[in-house]
Amino acid sequence: MFRSIFAILLLSTFCSAQQPSSAPPPLPGSPLDLVQQGQKLSREGKQDDALALYRQAMAKVPNLYEAHLGAGMALDLKGDYAEARKELKKAINAAGPDTMAQALRSMAYSYTFEGNAHKAAEFEKKVFDDRIAHTEWQAAAEICNELARIYLESGDPDNAYKWYKKGYETIGRKSDLTDAEKNLWLFRWENAQARVAARRGQAGEAQQHVTVARAALDQANNPDQLRFYPYLTGYVAFYSGDYKTAIAELQKADQHDPLILALLGEAYEKSGDAAQARDCYSKVLQINVHNPVNAFARPLARRKLGDGA
3-state DSSP call for residue 197? Predict the structure, then answer.
């Protein structure tokens, strides 16, 4: 019962958007309080201090899902991937139905930090299969795209294409898609094909998909999605060898996205601007989130700046 109460209270604190919980403030020194303090420290980049609090929470409530999950995330951000997976395995073992997908995806991200897309896929596929079993077509399609991106940024465009295609086919099984939603998913599919083509060295084909992606985005009439377009054009330009255009486009993209910052850093580096590149890599390491884009960007930035960064 004690375990279940804390699981309910803590569930919302680890959602991807990190929305504030509507639950009352925890008692000072309680496992909930310790975990929340640990989360704050982790976001500030103080991973060792966060880990100490997660350990204290575990001492009070052994097998506490949220404490093991937080510890695994902190260890990944430190670069201690093998130790991170020990904690994430405990989180998976302690997860309930409402938190299992999160635990599995976090383990996938841990493997992504090491560039091991095939191991990451083992855990992503479990989430995909569960969502298909529950006819959650959109959620399943989003997992396909997440796995596809893991493959793409790990240097495997063939598997990336396979999973992006599966995602587009899966969303097509959702019978109540509006025209705007159809165009949004067409934008995502063309966006994906453009990036895959760029990674394959097919610059002309990539540009064709960029053109179709832009038309679909305009038809979707979704202003929130416009911010993804300069990332697409910058990405294609970078992998087509046009670093000047890549820099110009990526500067228009989300400067809080670690992958965009890492790609911008690489574009500066290719252009011979080492100082600007280093600044971008330094900004990446200031971002302390546990998600796929940081799993790609953070190890790259650490390598570029040296292990002591």
Answer: helix
- CA–CA dist 289, 16 (Å, integer): 9
Please name the residues in contact with 15: beta carbons below 8 A apart, sequence gap of 6 or more: none
Q: Which two tokens stand for residue 279?
A: 């600044």
Tokens of 189: 């599919």
Tokens encoding 204: 């002309």
The enclosing domain of 52 has a CATH number of 1.25.40.10
d(CA 92, CA 244): 45
Residue 85: closest CA among 58, 60, 104? 104
Answer whether residue 145 is part of any domain. no
| DSSP, residue by residue, 153-190 | HTT-HHHHHHHHHHHHHHHTT-TT--HHHHHHHHHHHH
Residue in the block written with tokens 């300069």: 230
Give the pLDDT confidence of 183-241 residue by residue, as tens digits.
999 999 999 999 999 999 999 999 999 999 999 999 998 888 999 999 999 999 999 99
Domain range for 281: 254-309
Reported as a single tens digit per residue, the pLDDT across 253-273 is 999 999 999 999 999 999 999
